[in-house]
Structure formats: structure tokens, C-alpha cells
Amino acid sequence: MSTNKKTPTTDKVKKVTAPSVQGQKGGEKICCMTAYDYSSGLIADDSGMDLVLVGDSLAMVVLGHEDTLSVTMDEMVHHVRATSRGVKRALLVADMPFMSFCTVPKALENAGRFISEGRAKAVKLEGGEAVAPQIKALSDAGIPVMAHIGLTPQHVAKFGGFKAQGKSVEATKALIEDALAVEEAGAFCVVLEAIPVEAAKLITGALSIPTIGIGAGDVTDGQILVYHDVLGLFDRFTPKFVRRYAELGAATKEALEEYCDDVRRGRFPADKNTIYMPDDQVESVRKIKIKKKK
Ligand code: KIV
Q1: Candidate from 33, 193, 211 with most ligand 1 atoms within 8 A of CB, to mutate
Q2: Nearest residue CA, atom 5 of ligand 1?
Q3: Helix, strand, coil tally for the chain in percent (to 5)
């Protein structure tokens, strides 16, 4: 049976909501992708994604920072708002940047900006039990929260690099505690990043909210990947859990090299790219005398 969910061209688009994502637990797998602007949001939405995340990974793949720690709230709001213009059907989620949710009042103020200025429909924040009060406060305020545990890139300094998490009995127990705490606090789903499939299976089985995996094996309720990784647009490093579906970086470079070559050799613009003066104006235009100011 076809599961093609492409955005219909009529006005009646059945929008994905946080409760509808939550309702997909144990059912059809939830397809999620990051996007960072109008055009990537439009393409992701039109491809049939259930959920589009404006991830703070934009710090690395769009802004060129070495990690995700430097992107600001203002930068994120700008990108979320642009992406919202392209996403019509999928659930648009905004990622709360480093330190933007370190207290409950900060979390409420900044998540509120994502909803009212950015037009996001939910927010994501990294952390487990430690951020349960923030998740509860946001949920109570009517803002759906996607939690994120395992390899949380905002804790890269504490982890000593982008390293897989939960690779022991003790670490798995701690992950389970975090997963239960974010569910209890009101998260509508939780991202599991870079953890062993065995741990992901336990957590997925224990929770009543969906788990969205990135490097957590095939046992989660959904999957998410970074747009630039999937399309071959980011070369600095490619984690083991990424699958590339296209090599658009290489294809784009080739196209731009061809353009340069055409310009240098006078092959572009061609006649069909050229605007000509209407016939009845040509003679008079030719006679225009140009006087330069001294
Ligand atoms: O910032 C991001 O893109 C993310 C996803 C990879 C889950 O957090």
C-alpha cells in the first residue's frame, strides 16, 4: 500500500500535530528531518515528512561553527520563521539553543519566542531528568516539547567529544531514568541519539510516548537525520549512523564549475537568456548620446 503523504495542492492540508505524532506510537514509523530555511522546509514538507526540526545543528551545517554551542536565540528565531513559510503540513519543531532553557523562566520566555515569532508548533530541548522542570513548565503553558537524550551535542565538552552514550549497564539505567523523567514531565516524544540499539529497544518498550532515533537502530518509533548529511551537503564529518541518499554537494560544485567555465568562455548568457529592446525602440535607443559628468 502506498504511504505517499506528499502535500496536496488543495487548501485542505491535514496538518500533523504533536498529539497526532504521539498517537503514532507503535504504529506507522514517524519520519523526521531537519531543515533550516524556506526552501529546505518546503522540500522536506513536500516529501511527506511528519516532523521538521529546525535543529541547532544549523550552527555547524549552515553557519560553519565547529559545534552547536554558538548559535543564538535570535539566529534560531530567524531560521525557524523562514522555515515556517515552507512547512505547511509537517509538525514544525524549533530546537532550543545552548543555555536558552537553563532556568524555567528562560525556557518559557525563549520557547514563547519560537511559537509567537518563529511560528513553530513545538520546541525541542536537550537533557533528561535535569530539565524535567522546564519540560513540565512548557507543557503546562501549552507548548509541546520534544525531549532529547543520549548524545546531546550541547554537552560535548562534558562528554569529551561527539561520542555514543549508554554503552554500559549503568549508563543504560541512567538513560532509562532520563527517558521516564521526560515522559513524566509531559514531553510528547523523545529523541534518542547515538545509543546502542539494545538500550533504545528497552526505552522504546518502556515509554508510552514515541521515541525518535538518530543512531539508535531500527527499534525506535521514528527516525530523524540532518538534511545536509542525507543530501551530501556537509563533508566535515559523517557519523556512522548517517545514510546519504544523494551527493548534492558534489553535483552543486560541478554545476557551478560549468557555469564559471561558460562565463569565462562566453557561452553564457546565450541568446535565449538575453532581453532585447522592442523593435520600435531599437533605432532611437542606439542614437542616445551619453554625456559623462566631469
Ligand atoms: O540539532 C539537530 O539537528 C538535532 C537532531 C539531529 C536531532 O538535534
Answers
A1: 193
A2: 55
A3: 40, 15, 45
Q: What is the pLDDT of residues 179-232, one digit of tens each?
A: 999 999 999 999 999 999 999 999 999 999 999 999 999 999 999 999 999 999
Among candidate residues 28, 75, 193, 283, the one labeled active-site is 193
- Mapped to the 3 state alphabet, what secondary structure does 110-158 carry? HHHHHHHCCCCCEEEEEECHHHHHHHHHHHHCCCCEEEEEECCHHHHHH
CB of 223 shorter than 6 A to ligand 1: no
pTM, two decimal places: 0.93
pLDDT digits (tens, 9 = 90+) for 59-101: 999 999 999 999 999 999 999 999 999 999 999 999 999 999 9
Confidence of residue 2 (pLDDT cuts 50, 70, 90): very low
- Domains in the chain and their CATH numbers? 18-246 (3.20.20.60), 250-286 (no CATH)
- The b-or-e profile of 258-284 (16+ CB within 10 A means b, else e) is eeeeeeeeeeeeeeeeeeeeeeeeeee
**One-letter amino acid identity for 109?**
E
Pairing of strands 211-214, 51-54: unpaired
How remote is the CA of residue 31 from the centroid of ligand 1, in Å? Answer: 14
